[in-house]
Amino acid sequence: MISNSDRDDRAGDVLAVVSQSGPTVTFFDAVSDTMLAEVEVPPEPHELCFDPTQRLLWCTNTYVSGYYHANAGRGTQLTVIDPDARRVVDVVDLAPEHGPHGLALDPVRGRLYVSVEGSPDRPGGVVVIDTSTRKALGRIDTGAPGPHWFVIDSAGEKGYASNKEAPFVSFVDLQAGTFSTVEVPGSEGLAVSADGSELYVAAPYGSFTSCTAESSPLTGIRVIDTTNGSVLDVLSTENIVFPVCLTSASILLVGELRMSADESSALGRHARGRLSAFSTATRQRVARVELTGKFPLTITASPDGHLGYVAAVTSSTVDIVDLQTWEVLNSLTIAKRGEPGAHGLAYIPRLG
Asked: GO molecular function: any one (predicted)?
């Protein structure tokens, strides 16, 4: 149960949520869950990343419409939003790069890393942005056509890209501008430990039609040693995992996609999703939470590690989960104009 002191600590904090088909970013009060503002952005917004140094919110605009493997063309833009004034302050065009997805921030060096899809003559990669000038500084190849989520270690030296259909995760040397690969059977979300020693990778790739452990015996999270690239363990789940989030309490949150024959959408037939939680110290599951949302696609957590937020793209909702009692406290409805719905999330601490 959330205490009054926890609420006081979050007073003035804001949650930002993408609606892909909005196309919007909606801001909510982190204490009352009241909607504060809805900001229209270019199509089709996907992920969010908050830069506390510049105090700006970055958003990838990935497609003209649609979603991965079912779109009407790939976008080339990043939208820059002032989260305090709640308005768009810039649109950065990455052309000829296209299909920007994942975002990772190095606040010390003032670098933003953006994963981009490949072309017939070039693999996908990571574009490096200077956060003060908002200009591209360069590009690092990742060796796969569709790099998706991207994370970096706390030292800002290594990056990691998940690659959906490609049978490997890309290990990127951010200083040398080179990459190597570690074999996994396609990958979705990923997270890196606070000390940078372990990488947690959701695998295999989710196909919407085959998302159970019966068809994928090693469904779950690959725990990879980042020094030698060896797979140390597999944290098993009953269903395909898309989003992954590591909290400040070293709890790994994973969102499981569950299928249903009862209801269909353009994205597939989905039942209510599940949130599973693992201790990274023991590698044991510590909780299972039945979500209200369908197709969990993005997870984030409050800085204190007390609250988890799970965006579900088909139902276009965000479940708010108490990470101590493992209860769903509330579910936010995110406006959409079709499919997909709720996607990217960012927790924005109050100014000062």
From this structure: DNA binding
